[in-house]
Amino acid sequence: MYFETKNISVNYDQVRAVRNVSIGLEEGETISLIGANGAGKSSTLRAITGLKKIVEGEIWFDGTRLDLLPPDRIVGCGVAMVPEGRRVFPFMSVKDNLLMGAFSRRDKASIRADLDRMFTRFPRLKERISQAAGTLSGGEQQMLVIARALMAAPKLLLLDEPSLGIAPKLVQDIARSIVSINRDDKVSVILVEQNSRMALSISHRTYAFSTGEVAIEGRSEDLRQDDRIRRLYLGGEL
Amino acid sequence: MEQVIINGIYSGMQYALIALGLTLIFALMGVLNFAHGQMYVLGGFVTYYVYGVMGLPFVVGLAATAATLALVGVFFEFVIFRRVLKLSVREESTMLVAAGGALFLESLVLIIFGEKHRGVPSVISGVWKVGDAYMPYGRLLVVAMSALLIGGFILFMQYTRQGRALRALAQDREAAQIQGVNVDNYSMLGFAIGATLAGLAGGLLVSISGVNSGLGTWISIKAFIMVMIGGAGVVPGAIIGGFILGMLESVGYTVLPGGETYLVIFVALIAFLAIRPQGLMGKPWG
Asked: Is B276 on the interface with A (CB under 8 A)?
């Protein structure tokens, strides 16, 4: 597999938040992790970025074992993350936020070219290029953190709840961006979402989490029709 | 009147330089570095020794000061604060450690350089006359060098890759980490820069007012006043706080009898913080 976690477990204090989770993805795929709050999907993502150390298992990406690396080295392996709750650098300009995304790269010319590409892709960001990121609207901040992650020129993009707290109309924009990043930029994507409907509609495969474990997995197309998924993961949503 | 303003600018510029280092370390690590004043004193003594005793050029003295204090900053971060920050869950631990660091540096300076107040020959002589006011060239040099250092610091923070990483780290540690910023290395860099700024302020000021081993606490107190006025962890706040304190001092020394200036400043500070606890430009906590 291009990327996989092999039976990983994560503890918070003494409580096991992720138990024996094995997920995998082939190059070019988008997979989504869905489930309720506290089901372990965000913890799985944090484990991949190294922000949370795993207590068991291994994480492999493109021949590199990630779980032995500190967080600041993982982005250099081609894995970038859009953290939950946006997390822009609030007092830095939009441009500086984007340049921070490219922190792990040294190729000045292509960083500049990528900066221009981001401004073409997200014209709103160009209008606000020297504005402090903290003064942007929620939707604009979400675009900024996605663009910031793309500035790392990742091969694998991790998104943690990108639709959380975003106006419904903008959720569609974000979904479209994710599809385009995957299809046009050839970036593999792991999407963590509580908005299961959105996640199932834009991913190739889906892992449904429940109490720290993968409860159901399969092709998103099939899972959209799956009774258990409809009842447990789609039922509660309007 | 002109004299009051000129004295205020002179004090304000050096104070801003002192406050910058303190606020940088606070912004990066959440550490209140009580040893900041002692770092200033050590810087003063290094310049005193290299320039005053060994007779090398003043600039060499400042370079030696910068190098020494950068090492002290690295030592403080690497040997002390990094470990304490990882182990402790309470903010008081770093404060106590910082206070201990202050005592340690003060004793070290006392052992190496003795208890006498030391001065150095003036770097340049002559007086600049503006209107009815006088500004000795020596002080003008301190103002110019401080302005240069402050400007250089701002440019570094604003326009270099390392400066951006330091700002990112101060604003969101975890988000900075996932962009590839090594928290340990950059905390060390920030601490070294903060200590160097304190030391250079001491090195510059030794050419005017000299230095003695007991000066540190008083410098730290002034630095904390400036940072509280401007807002903790905010670079423009530190600079503004420095100038406000410089001006208050200058006016106070002119209109009030000797020791009462700081009495008034402290009372005013308490009243100000009661109304605006986050300072002029700071973020409200909590």
From this structure: no
- Smallest Cα–Cα separation from B234: which of A144, A131, A132? A132
What domain count does chain B have?
1
Residues of B in contact with A91 (CB under 8 A): 167, 171
The beta-carbon neighbor of A103 closest among B165, B171, B183 is B165
Residue B92 in contact with partner chain A when CB distance is under 8 A: no
Mutating which of B179, B182, B188, B283 best tests the A interface, going by the most A Cβ atoms within 10 A?
Answer: B179
Task: Tell whether B270 is covered by a domain.
Answer: no
Q: Tens digits of per-residue pLDDT, A6-58?
A: 999 999 888 899 999 999 999 999 999 999 888 999 999 999 999 999 999 99
Number of Cβ atoms within 10 Å of the Cβ of A218:
13
The residue segments making up the domain with residue B196 are 2-215
User: B131's torsion region: left (phi>0), alpha (psi -120 to 50) or beta?
Assistant: left
Name chain A contacts of B177, Cβ cutoff 8 Å.
51, 71-72
Interface pTM (ipTM) of the complex?
Answer: 0.92
Name the residue ranges covered by the structural domains of chain A. Answer: 3-234
B171 contacts A90? CB cut-off 8 A? yes
User: In the predicted model, is pLDDT for residue A234 greater than 90?
Assistant: no
d(C-alpha B33, C-alpha B102), whole Å: 8
Please check whether residue B224 lies inside any domain of the structure. no
Render pLDDT for A129-164 as a digit per residue (tens, 0 to 9). 999 999 999 999 999 999 999 999 999 999 999 999
Helices marked H in A133-217: 138-150, 168-183, 196-202
Query: Going by DSSP bridges, is the β-strand pair A3-12/A56-61 parallel, antiparallel, or unpaired?
Result: antiparallel
Residue B152 lies in a domain: yes
CATH for A3-234 is 3.40.50.300
